[in-house]
Predict the 3D structure of the following.
Amino acid sequence: MNKEVKLSVNNLKVSFRTDGGKVQAVRDISFDLYKGETLAIVGESGSGKSVTSKAIMGISAVNAIYEGGEILYDGQDLVRIPEEEMHKLRGDKIAMIFQDPLSSLNPIMRIGRQITEAMLLKNKANRKEGRVSFNKMLAELSDMMKKALAESADKRFTAADVDKYIKTFDSFNIQSIKLENSYTDARTHTEEMIAIMEDFLFMTEKRQKIDVVGELKQVARKLKQIDDKYFTAKYTDVLKEHALALDAAIRVEKAKVSLGDSVKKLVGKNAAQKDASPETVEILKAIKATAEEMVAQTPYNFFRIGYYIYKNPTVDLSRMPAEEANEIAIKFLMEDFMTSFLELEKIAVQYSFRKTLENKKEAIKALQSTIEFFKAGNFTDREAEAICKSINKTVLAAIDPLAVIKDNVAYTFGGALEREVEKYFFYIKNNPKEEERFAKQTAKREALLAKGKKVDWNVVPKSIIEPEAQIETIVSVLTRVMNRFKADVENAESVDFDKRCVEIVDYLKGKASQVVYKLTKRIAKEKAIKLMEEVGIPEARMRYRQYPFEFSGGMRQRIVIAIALSANPDILICDEPTTALDVTIQAQILELINKLKRERDLSIIFITHDLGVVANMADRIAVMYAGKIVEYGTSEEVFYNPQHPYTWALLASMPDLDTNEKLDAIPGTPPNMIYPPVGDAFAERNKYAMEIDFEMQPPMYQVSPTHYAATWLLHPNAPKVEMPKIITERIRRMKERGGNYGES
Amino acid sequence: MENHNEVLLKVDHLCQYFRLGRKDLKAVDDVSFEIRKGETFGLVGESGCGKTTTGRSIIKLYDITSGNVYFKGQRIGAGTHSYQDAIKNAKADAKKKIEALKADKSASPAAVEAEIKQIKADLAETVAKNRALIRDAKFDHKEVDKQYAASLVKALDEEFAEKFAAAKGDAEQTKALKREYKNRRRVAKKSKYITQIQMIFQDPIASLDPRMTVRDIIAEGMIINGVTDKEYINQKVYEILETVGLVREHADRYPHEFSGGQRQRIGIARSVVMQPEMIIADEPVSALDVSIQAQVINLLNDLRESQGLTILFIAHDLSVVKYFSDRIGVMYFGKMVELADSDELFKYPLHPYTKSLLSAIPLPDPVYEKQRTRITYNPIAEHDYSVDTPSFREIRPGHFVYCNDAEEAKYKAIVNGEAEG
């Protein structure tokens, strides 16, 4: 079981503040989601499965309170990171598919725009972010270098050298960005040209009417715009020929346009529409082939070439093939600049690391004292605020500014701590009305207990959050960052500084080219069409311009999936994606999700109330009831060897093809979670319930290394209870049918 | 479930078209089936195949295009499209024949004249016959409720004529009788034949008026039918609430105060309170949680046994339909493609669409699920109906399939082979 954990939920507790009191929707659940697996969460409505998924997405209702626990993704606690950070993850790394496709689509926006919208926005934001990050890092580097030189004994470099090096780095980078920009522009134009031609060829093949001359002119315009010398180096002659052929074709097609059509076009009515001649199609096909070849050629490494050109502005490397040019450029770069730059950089990196290491050691001490301060309790909000501020300063000072891989725990620490402390004071306020009620109910409960009666309810606490629990949460935030720092201090010896230096250069390089990479609407459209084909929408090119209402339910759900996948997420949360669909469509959608999971190695959280759906999809299953996970295990274990009475009840309440007996419906309704039961929440509806079920919550018993269930029936002293006949019968039948599992 | 041989509902070549611009949308196209007293008939198919439309046409929520619907032998719905088509065809035929005769120069003019006369007479006869049929159909379709009310009133009159005669002279008794007569006459006058069929709708939220209490919702049918006795209505409402597993206190609540399963129970109570002979249940459990589904299915099953109800069960969840129904009809694009006993259908599915539908059922069995391959149904590749036109044929006693001659032979071979093996 050495699988990579993608997402881990630990002791999550979510409640909702309502007029009636605090509804405890999720009560202390934990699970891990591995890379490339499907985890199914099964339960009745109101069991808290959707609340869990919304907590992961950070889209809980406004009256939700996170009472404790953590959701860890990529080192970050999703419950406590600020909204801006969550913004970067939501939809991008973690995507969600809802039950009703129509409610997640915009009815007055064409499908194509809805799919490409996120891509385009993200591209724009990325380019902006690239520029900012690049400048920031470079400034940081130069600053640190100067500081380091001032303190170091190394006399090879002076502060003037630093300025020179940084300036060189910056300006040759600008040079390479210029080159790369022109290159990618040409490439973008080529790709757009391919897109236009693909549209054109598609339309002519389908014998649709189309403005032939107009389209051809567009292709010709694009063809002229492809003029980067690096990009077209090998193809200048071919492109010239193509341009001539295209001009000829335009002339031919123009001659075919009748007078009436031209007049129509002049007055701005329907453009001339008719089929293109086969010769034109041939020419276009040839151009397309060349263009595709050009797009596929080995790219130049402009970071290297940029320096070469910067030093020797007269030399033209574009005559050389890409591999050779790259080779020469890197050699020159290394000898002339990079080696000494890296040395200088290393001094700075080492200096910065040492400095922050000391800060970290101090921070650990400060954190320790802060933890003690909070643990002691009895603090006023002013004190707490001051201590938060100072500790945040200490922690931020301990972050190495030259570390490329951000320490998310430390970065998000300040906000998280502040919010938790705020929560503490917000909910701790005294409310006389509540106090009164609390005193009354406690008295009542105690009176009943004194009479020797059994009381199956707890008194609702007077404040929504228990102060002790909240302090614990605050301490856990502090401990997490402290542990992180401790680990860093321990590993300080084994840090590879050379690697770090190279990483910084790579980071700068990456950020610089992030600025260059442009996604135009046309290319986004081609991407969207590919995506639509991938999720099985036929005739994607035609349907790209349709509105959501023109699609059937199954197709709509496919579009929602396409939108969710457009950002290439790590984790996909499916909240009952097939409940509104009928059997055949449901089967198709499930197959699609399974296929995408295999192809993209997605991790999926699949939420449903229908166990039948899950058998095909899930690798592991968690059964939830009243905000707790009552049983979890691999899908074979849960279906062939269910342990919890609730799982039995779920299985027994749905008929399969061989069921003839009366169904075992679960009597009653789930408990009111304002007054959660003292014992097992399912006891009231459970015909196998024992006395202890009403008094104490059962712990998780291990059935096998991967299979756990929370029921007293698994206690060694519990009476032996048989599963309902309807299930044993079914399992027997299933085993006969071919399942050879369950001999354990 | 004893009287399985008496036919309660007979649907005969039912067609339901909707105008869609210039064309007709054939939502239900030539569907015929019978439902016997006390049985549950399941209707399955993917969404948009016309199952719901069939149910609604039967209960006369739509005016059917053509075909007949008989309930307890009485025609309750009839369409005229087929007769009109017959008239049109006959006229065109006659015209063609006459033109052919006129063009024929070899025959003697007198003979031609006589023949034309004969043809015209035939045409007139056909047209008259079909017009009469149309008239009948229209009459039955529109007046069936009036007729029924009139017959009830007549029976009541006869009954009370005797009673009045017996009570003659006794002023007190006559007065009481008169009051009873008045009440019952009002109910009889307002009765409708069609209320013997009731419907349960899919979405329990959308089908209940949010501004009416449960009592109003359940009593509405009775009030429309002319019952004015408040005591009696309340009595009935309480009774029915308990039958469907709710309690008296629920009567004064509003629908939004209930959970999904309870709302569906209210919907069931509303239809059962009219003491129908038959219920059309249009996807009553599709919108519910699994555990609630089981409760509702058990309730319907209990009602069927205790009240002797006949149920037309429309759903797309095949495992539920299999569990619940005695016979199942499979629909595809407005056509009934297969009809058989539920066990038989699942054992020997013949039509390729049925096979594809059965292959899509998910089961709670991971090993089986991982092996399951879905069969896709492609009608164009599957059938060649260019020459050999298909119709609804009986392959085995009680097992009907929509097929043509070649397919019929093939299916028969399969069935016989399997029966032997």
Chain A has 26 helices and twelve strands. Chain A touches chain B through 50 residues (CB under 8 Å). The CA atoms of residues 145 and 348 of chain A lie 5 Å apart. Residues 647-737 of chain A form one domain.
